[in-house]
UniProtKB/TrEMBL annotation:
InterPro entries: NTF2-like_dom_sf
Protein's UniProt name: SnoaL-like protein
Taxonomic source organism: Nocardia tenerifensis
Length: 147
């Protein structure tokens, strides 16, 4: 079974809406466990929805201090790897409360169709998030979180 572009778009719209609402539990519902996040500076696995939600909630004050009010996406690439695994490349667009674009950032995700038929993220690779968020924070005079 392949994953359709419509399924991926519906998945991403739900994810962006949960991120825009700063709703950690709703965001975490898009993830399977264990979930892995990796970038040039960090590699870690989160083993429970509670752990994932706590991590997201810790990041919210920083994103809010940057003025983040909404998130949108562009699906750049999709590749079905197996009947249940799909890799996607997504560009997230971050906007302030007036709809002005703050920045964007690319991610690669490995999605798996679980036994219940739902798509879940199991691996997220942050490609350029740190450098773009750092540049935005410097522009706004906001200190980057240390942990």
């Amino acid at each position: 079974m392949t994953t359709t572009r419509d399924e991926i778009e519906a998945f991403l719209v739900e994810y962006q809406d949960s991120l825009s609402a700063f709703d950690a539990e709703r965001s975490v519902a898009q993830w399977g466990t264990p979930g892995m996040i990796i970038n040039d500076a960090f590699a870690g696995t989160l083993s429970s929805p509670e752990e994932m939600a706590a991590g997201l909630k810790q990041s919210y004050p920083f994103y809010q201090s940057l003025g983040l009010a909404s998130v949108d996406h562009t699906l750049l690439e999709q590749a079905d790897l197996t009947a249940r695994l799909t890799r996607i490349h997504v560009r997230w667009h971050f906007y302030d409360g007036e709809g002005t674009k703050l920045t964007d950032g690319d991610y690669e995700y490995l999605l798996r169709r679980d036994d219940d038929g739902k798509l879940k993220v199991y691996v997220a690779v942050a490609i350029d998030e740190m450098e773009k968020l750092t540049a935005l924070a410097v522009e706004k005079g906001i200190a980057m979180p240390t942990a």
